[in-house]
């Protein structure tokens, strides 16, 4: 592996960094040597490592690790955007989450990242018409990670789910690029209506912990949704909404709320008045 590292670094700097971090972690904690080798150091590409991790975490008595590994490998071979999106997700977490100090952490330890990569494989299956298998993976992701993302949902690259727990993203939801979600966020419907019934989240949006965004509504680019809010109407671009039901309380405060991750509200904004 060491002989290949200069070439890997030139072609894939993200994966090269993961390998370097894994080697350092091995030296610091030899007892994790088996885990580090099987999950990272034995693999030639990030895609191979993700496929292994996918199969390991989601295998059950109903579907073996070997079958799941074959599914993941086929998906990554067939659609290179899966690997590209995974790299964008990985870098997004490293840049936005102050608890993430190494690239290998999301791959090995962060269930938000792992659940999103599993969703991406399930979404590939859905688009191939293999809907029962896609739904099976959705079920396993929900059981293992407590994150429920319908495989038909459309999610862009650079997604960060921080403290990934109790996330729900419905069938017709759309999530743009470079979005950040905190725990217990729901992108859901409002009743039993069929058809296009879930939110459309723009690029660069930050959605705080416990927020519920419901119905076929538009959340504009680079907006912020405060923690605990219930959003039932469209949100303009570059604005902050808060409350139950949510209303505009000010500007978003910066060009990239999802990157800055500032969830505080200015004490002069309307939500502190009356």
Automatic annotation (TrEMBL):
SMART domains documented for this protein: SATase_N
Example GO biological process: cysteine biosynthetic process from serine
Domain Serine acetyltransferase N-terminal: 14-118
A Gene Ontology molecular function term of the record: serine O-acetyltransferase activity
Entry annotated with the keyword Cytoplasm: no
Catalytic activity, EC: 2.3.1.30
EC class name: transferase
GO CC entries: cytoplasm
Catalytic activity: L-serine + acetyl-CoA = O-acetyl-L-serine + CoA
Keywords in alphabetical order: Acyltransferase, Amino-acid biosynthesis, Repeat, Transferase
Pathway: Amino-acid biosynthesis; L-cysteine biosynthesis; L-cysteine from L-serine: step 1/2
Gene3D superfamilies linked: Hexapeptide repeat proteins (2.160.10.10), serine acetyltransferase, domain 1 (1.10.3130.10)
NCBIfam families: cysE, EPS_EpsC
Family the UniProt entry places it in: Belongs to the transferase hexapeptide repeat family.
Full protein name: Serine acetyltransferase
Taxonomic lineage from the root: Bacteria, Pseudomonadati, Pseudomonadota, Alphaproteobacteria, Rhodobacterales
């Amino acid at each position: 592996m060491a002989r290949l590292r200069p070439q890997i670094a030139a072609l894939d700097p993200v994966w090269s960094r993961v390998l370097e971090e894994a080697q350092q972690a091995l030296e610091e904690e030899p007892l994790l040597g088996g885990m580090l080798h099987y999950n990272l150091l034995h693999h030639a590409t990030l895609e191979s490592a993700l496929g292994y991790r996918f199969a390991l975490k989601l295998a059950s008595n109903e579907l073996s690790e070997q079958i799941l590994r074959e599914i993941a490998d086929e998906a990554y071979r067939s659609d290179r955007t899966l690997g590209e999106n995974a790299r964008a997700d990985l870098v997004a977490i490293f840049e936005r989450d102050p608890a993430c100090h190494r690239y290998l952490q999301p791959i090995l330890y962060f269930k938000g990242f792992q659940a999103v990569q599993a969703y991406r494989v399930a979404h590939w299956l859905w688009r191939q018409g293999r809907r029962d298998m896609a739904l099976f993976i959705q079920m396993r992701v929900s059981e293992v990670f407590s994150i429920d993302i319908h495989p038909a949902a459309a999610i862009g690259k650079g997604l960060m789910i921080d403290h990934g727990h109790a996330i729900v993203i419905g069938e017709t939801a759309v999530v743009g690029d470079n979005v950040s979600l905190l725990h217990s966020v729901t992108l859901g419907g409002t009743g039993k209506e069929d058809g296009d019934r879930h939110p459309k989240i723009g690029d660069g949006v930050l959605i705080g912990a416990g927020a519920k965004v419901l119905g076929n509504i538009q959340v504009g680019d680079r907006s912020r949704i405060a923690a605990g809010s219930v959003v039932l109407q469209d949100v303009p671009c570059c604005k902050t909404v808060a409350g139950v039901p949510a209303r505009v309380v000010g500007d978003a405060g910066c060009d990239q709320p999802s990157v800055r991750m500032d969830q505080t509200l200015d004490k002069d904004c309307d939500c502190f008045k009356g």
